[in-house]
Amino acid sequence: MRTPVIAGNWKMHNTIAESRSLVRELKQLIHDVTDVEVIVAPVFTSIGAVVAEVQGSSIKVAAQNMHWEMQGAYTGEVSPRMVKDAGCSHVIIGHSERRQYFAETNQTVNKKVRAALAAGLTPIMCIGETLAEREAGTTMQVVAEQVREGFAGMQATDISCCIIAYEPVWAIGTGKTATPAQAEEVHQAIRGIIAEIGSSSVAASMRILYGGSVKPDNIDELMREPDIDGALVGGASLKADSFFRIVRFQR
Ligand code: PGA
């Protein structure tokens, strides 16, 4: 009953021309995919070109970040209103690279998640433990705190409009994927927390994506886990054929 989501996070890759040709290729490949929600997240400068290119297809476009204020004196920032205006339907919030290199916290994530919803965008809220946290045995604690603080003060109806991406930091860009069982264990725990802070029906309908070295050769086993509802894909989303194979996962 939960429509799977496969989202490609292009990170800081691709010029406008490169973005256009990648999404054009993808559009051809996925023209008859109707049972999976496909999202691509280009850099800000390519959003306009990608939005124009996906017209008439089911591909949706996400921004990789945004500020929480709608406008103002914040040099270099882009607001939720502007992201929406550019044609995005989704926005990635709190990716571990933002937390690691740009000092984002659960508190800024919370402000951004709320601002995204206020602008009519679907937030994809990213959470996940570092290697040190996993080795110290604090994964569940860290992830629970990220979910609770990320959604702090929000009504169940607002929480139900969000997507979560669980991305263990040690699995991102490293070629080390969490095993399906490791991922499932955390996904299940996340769903439990959503039931507590939202409701059991919000938990049952919430899409929880896995991210971290998702590839054509590991997507199938990940998607067989009952609480894994899709993937946030970095490296393997930069080539149309590998991203397409992930979109066409076999359960
Ligand atoms: P990766 O990145 O697939 O290259 O590990 C995933 C992500 O950071 O969203």
Q: What would you note in describing this structure?
A:
The structure is a single chain. The longest helix has 18 residues, at 180-197. The chain has 251 residues and is an alpha/beta fold. An eight-stranded parallel beta barrel has the order 1-2-3-4-5-6-7-8, surrounded by five helices. Helix 2 links the parallel strand 2 (37-41) and strand 3. The relative contact order is 0.15. The protein has helices at 16-29, 44-53, 80-85, 96-101, 106-118, 131-135, 139-150, 156-159, 180-197, 200-205, 219-223, 240-247; strands at 5-9, 37-41, 60-63, 90-93, 122-127, 163-166, 208-211, 230-233. It contains twelve helices and eight strands. The mean pLDDT is 97. Residues 9, 167, 172-173, 211-214, 232-236 line the site of 2-phosphoglycolic acid. The site of 2-phosphoglycolic acid has 13 residues, from strand 8.
